[in-house]
Amino acid sequence: MVGLIAMETVTNSSQIQEHTLHIGMAQLLVEGGEPSRNFERAYTLLQKAHQERCDLVLFPECMDLAWTHPSALKEAQAIPGPYSDLLCQYAQEFKIIICAGLTEKDTSHIYNSAVLIDSTGKLLLKHRKINLLTPAEDMYSIGTHLSCIDMPFGRVGINICSDNYMDSIEIGHTLARMGAQLILSPCSWTVDYFFQENTNPYGAKWFKPYFTLASLHHLVIIGTTSVGVIVGGPYEGKKMVGCSLAVGPQGLLCQGKYNEFSGELITTQISIPNHNRRGTAIGEHLRHHGYYQNHYLLKLDQKLLERS
């Protein structure tokens, strides 16, 4: 479990107006090439989310066919299409906002995509993953756009999994510059079969980029990942292990369990801050805190080391 970190030099609580949201991280068991079973499990988690009065549920990356599964080449669907329509029906039935990763076919291209659907079942936003892992480039095409949308509780942006790597963190910075107060990121965090959580906590890999974005830009970022064993494709034999994260300006808000066998719904109440910096004021803010000179990241590395 990643510990809470506060960096007072970045936080200015007097400028924050918070909106409360009850979110669910649907840490779904995803089977490769088995969309019917995957959507059945998703429906079950949405039933639970409805019972727990969730406003928003975030599902993993490629929750339909599984990340990098070969079935994507023949079974990927358009967006809008059968799978996104099904999620729209779920959102309308349970009156819950849904964000989920889907495998998208568009003419001759396959994309690793994510959708945002409002509680009336309307498809609001679509993102195509940009920072593809090299072995996945034979399957997915690279996305070419970033966008945000205003919702009653604030402005929302979407990216996907490795879009938030430290060496591609500009994607998150760009969403923040667009005014995103909440970044939703469907994920499929994957490790070797011999990986042991007790010797090397996996969540730490993702906490650094999440907290960098959240603390510098006064936003909340949430990543929900799948669980299960990858069968087929370039990552066959690896396992998806949970550890979903929600991170805010002050640090960790919520974290899922390390779990490679069964799905779960992790729920928590979050407050979404209203940051008021725009345009060049953001660059001035980052420069003031030493971000461009790496002072900020060095300070963060030291704090993470002290808590390891």
List keywords for this structure.
308 residues, 7 helices, six-stranded mixed sheet, single chain, Nitrilase/N-carbamoyl-D-aminoacid amidohydrolase, alpha/beta, disordered N terminus
Note down, in words, how this protein is organized.
With 308 residues, the chain is of the alpha/beta class. It has two domains: 256 residues, 4-Layer Sandwich (Nitrilase/N-carbamoyl-D-aminoacid amidohydrolase), CATH 3.60.110; 32 residues, no CATH class. The strands form three sheets. A six-stranded mixed beta sheet has the order 5-4-3-2-1-15. A six-stranded mixed beta sheet has the order 6-7-8-10-13-14, with helices on one face. A hairpin with a 2-residue loop joins strand 3 and strand 4.
Q: Can you lay out the helices and strands and say which pair or pack?
A:
Layout: E1 19-27, H1 35-51, E2 56-58, H2 72-75, H3 82-94, E3 97-106, E4 109-117, E5 123-128, E6 148-151, E7 154-158, H4 170-177, E8 182-187, E9 190-191, H5 203-217, E10 220-225, E11 227-229, E12 239-241, E13 245-248, E14 251-255, E15 264-272, H6 280-288, H7 295-306
Parallel strand pairs: 1-2, 2-3, 7-8, 8-10
Antiparallel strand pairs: 1-15, 3-4, 4-5, 6-7, 9-12, 10-13, 11-12, 13-14
Radius of gyration: 18 Å
* Domain tally: 2
Q: Any idea what the CATH superfamily of the largest domain is called? A: Carbon-nitrogen hydrolase
Helix percent reads: 25-40%
Distance between termini? 10 Å
Q: The biggest beta sheet, please?
A: 6 strands, mixed
**How is the CATH topology of the largest domain named?**
Nitrilase/N-carbamoyl-D-aminoacid amidohydrolase
Assign an overall shape: globular
CATH class of the largest domain: Alpha Beta
- Average pLDDT level: 90
- Give the uncertain stretches in residue-range form: 1-16
The count of strands amounts to 15
